[in-house]
Amino acid sequence: MPVLATVQHKHVGELKVRMCYTSFLPAFSLILVALLINYTASSQEFPTASTEQALPLHTFRTINIDGDVSLDEAQSRIHWNPHATGYSSLTTWSVTFRNETEIFLETVRGEAGHVATGAWWTTSFGSEAKIPLYTTEPIELTATFRANIAAINYEPDKEWLRVALACAVQRDDQSVVYTEMDIWDSPNTLRHPTGNIHLGGNVVYRGYDVVEYKIDQAPIGKWENYSIQLTRAINSAWSIRPGDLLESVYLVVETIGSTTVTVKVDDLWITRLA
Ligand SMILES: [Ca+2]
Fold first, then answer.
1. Which of 101, 178, 187, 222 is deepest in the core (most CB within 10 A)?
2. Centroid of chain to Cα 93
3. How many angstroms separate the alpha carbon of residue 266 from the centre of ligand 1?
């Protein structure tokens, strides 16, 4: 027990020195000094040793597959689950996978919808299961990715155009809520009355199942890197509660009106601190 021995020698040595200078003190003071020195030595040495032994090993674990689009086009299409919702055949959209994911969208006036691609528990999460967000141990999920908004055009009016990283959480009543982190918004999007951007806040929109935060207004034609604390964003939007399950994390382009958009994405990795 080398540490303990050092503590004891230090204790005796300090006590002798203190006794030389404090010989005039009443006996009860000497006892007090001895107790204090003993307490100091104990509190300095013992917790140090036990803290080193008790430190938990934090490791980051990646929970999704093919975030770097390194698989072939057909495999990446399975893992990235590209799809569109809301558009008619008048709208053109595509998502391609050639070492990076590229979303193309050309919409017409009067149409509203979105194109999404990313990680779903069905094909992209390594566990092939939804991720519990409320556990006895603290859970921290981070999404990192890089994106390049190569082109983005819209007809200014009552347009609604945004590019975001979004995630879906299933609650214990089977309802699904969405938390979105916008990296680009058209001007009308930022004027939504449920948001607080005009007050200097970071909420773009707050609807019945969506909370949307502003995290960037990305430059056009330039790769930008992002790192998002997913669990913190979800908790801020919805207050994580027992039964909450993460079911997807994806890039989305949402539109109302006439738009043309090209967005490239790569290195979408979702990591879990456990
Ligand atoms: Ca890549």
1. 101
2. 28
3. 5
